[in-house]
Design goal:
391 residues; alpha/beta; Peroxisomal Thiolase, Chain A, domain 1; 2 domains; nine-stranded mixed sheet; two-stranded antiparallel ribbon; 37% helix; globular; transferase; Thiolase; acetyl-CoA C-acyltransferase activity; Thiolase_C_2
């Protein structure tokens, strides 16, 4: 019999910060991560030396890792983790940092994610992203996420009856949310007709199905509840988290993710159900993954997400608030920071710092992560249930 999982009582997440995204940047990833650290120190009213734990996620930090970054930032943490898991990084950083604080290995952990975007950064990242993906597409002479997600999207449409109009509804709703979010790079409204008429990239993927690479950084702090109270920082409580890697390995092509393996234990650990969740921040590099997460996290049956999409608005002031800041599809994808985008937005929602994107009466939020696409599937999945301090 497995021992019962320990809860996260007394451990909280706080001080969500975003370094505003830009399309291209001449600065290094180190600069963006340093700006995020500086913003954390300023927001929390602490000294850099008070931070004794560090989690880092970045693609363009290479050849450095979190270790090299400590010298660049002039830090000497007693606990350190480098999390190269793309869109799952934010939740996994929260998990690791929370357990480190709980165990006494660190008092305050800074979780940082950021990337630069030079004119050629994205091509270089793709060329070194995954040996498995390189080998899989070599005979076809094509690679990159657009081809992989076209494969996954076409298969999902064939299996479920999802249409481009269904994917478009999510993209249009996210753009409506993004118009309220000051850091979103997409500043123009998007209609369903504009979505449908956009130029094809790799059928059935069209322009507005794709995230726009950019530069930026996001970050947050993890500490004990009494420390946050002493610093007078609003915070969110951690109800439950899960992560799973390379789930459903016998499936010939991804139709479900690791969330579905651990979902029941996830909600049981938090003592809540999907019906209790007031908003969902899902990793959204392409709309098909939004639908998989809605299903695999228990908001509808498997294969029923297209109908679920038809029944909800997904806007901050409507039914089933979803990616309330616009998600990557309308904010931009700042490399590994994309895995933190939903986390910092959830923390803002649960501490009444979301301003124009605030969901009224939001008490419980779910953040879902998905990362490291290997041709026919994403390898990393993770999720966290968070609650406002008085919930």
């Amino acid at each position: 019999m497995k021992p019962a999982r320990r809860g996260y009582e007394g451990i909280v997440a706080t001080a969500p910060v975003t370094i505003p995204y830009v399309r291209y940047s001449i600065y290094s990833a180190h600069w963006w991560l340093g700006k995020a650290l500086g913003a954390l120190v300023h927001k929390a009213g602490i000294a850099k030396t008070d931070i004794d734990g560090l989690c880092v996620s970045s693609f363009t930090l290479a050849p450095d890792t979190a270790v090299g970054l400590t010298q660049h930032l002039g830090m000497s943490p007693r606990w350190l983790d480098h999390i190269p898991m793309g869109g799952a990084s934010g939740v996994i950083a929260l998990r690791r940092a929370a357990r480190a604080v709980q165990a006494g290995d660190a008092d305050i952990v800074a979780c940082l994610a950021g990337d630069t975007n030079h004119v050629d950064s994205f091509r270089h990242t793709l060329s070194q992203f995954s040996r498995f993906a390189q080998d899989a597409v070599y005979p076809y002479g094509a690679g990159g996420p657009n081809a992989s997600f076209a494969l996954l999207t076409k298969n999902y449409m064939r299996q479920t009856g999802a249409t481009r109009e269904d994917f478009g509804k999510l993209c249009v709703a996210q753009r409506a949310n993004a118009l309220r979010f000051p850091h979103a790079l997409m500043k123009k409204p998007l209609s369903l007709q504009q979505y449908l008429d956009a130029r094809p990239i790799t059928e059935p993927i069209h322009l507005f199905d794709c995230v726009m690479p950019c530069a930026g950084a996001d970050a947050f702090l993890v500490m004990r509840e009494e420390k946050a109270q002493a610093l007078e920082l609003p915070y969110a409580r951690i109800l439950s988290t899960i992560e799973r890697h390379n789930a459903w390995i016998d499936d010939p092509m991804q139709m479900r993710g690791g969330w579905s393996v651990d979902r029941d234990a996830f909600y049981e650990h938090a003592q809540v159900s999907p019906a209790d969740v007031d908003f969902l921040q899902a990793y959204d590099d392409y709309p098909v993954i939004n639908m998989m997460q809605i299903e695999d996290l228990g908001f509808c049956e498997k294969g029923a997400a297209p109908q679920f999409v038809r029944e909800h608005t997904f806007t901050t002031d409507g039914s089933f608030p979803f990616n309330t800041n616009g998600g990557q599809l309308s904010v931009g994808q700042a490399g590994a920071a994309g895995g933190y985008l939903g986390m910092v937005e959830a923390l803002r929602q649960l501490t009444d710092q979301a301003d124009a994107t605030q969901v009224a009466h939001a008490r419980i939020g779910l953040v879902s992560g998905f990362g490291m696409i290997n041709y026919d599937r994403g390898i990393c999945t993770a999720a966290a249930l968070l609650a406002r301090s008085q919930a």
